[in-house]
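1st attempt posting a full record on here, be nice pls
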Amino acid sequence: MKKAYKTELKMTEKQLEKLAKTIGVCRYMYNLYLQKAQDHYKETGEFLSGYSFDKWINNVHSKQDGFGWIKEVSSKARKKSIMNGECAYKKFVTIQSPCRFRS
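the predicted structure (as tokens):
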């Protein structure tokens, strides 16, 4: 027999706002990484690492007007979503690559 436990979090308004911001920024970072990685590969034929993308975010993108909200959340959450995007992109490229099944 399998058991399950139901848990409910009772958060304050401030905590809910922080959670919503974090989830929104992580979703934005994940999708932006995938877009930039695809564009970079089409232009140069090279893979864009998550670390290179993170440097670009810190030095260029987040300093532009209107993107200060990216720095309002934890850098660890941002970095983890970028690394998850990198992992997904690597798996996608590997599956699509014809050289994967060489004998």
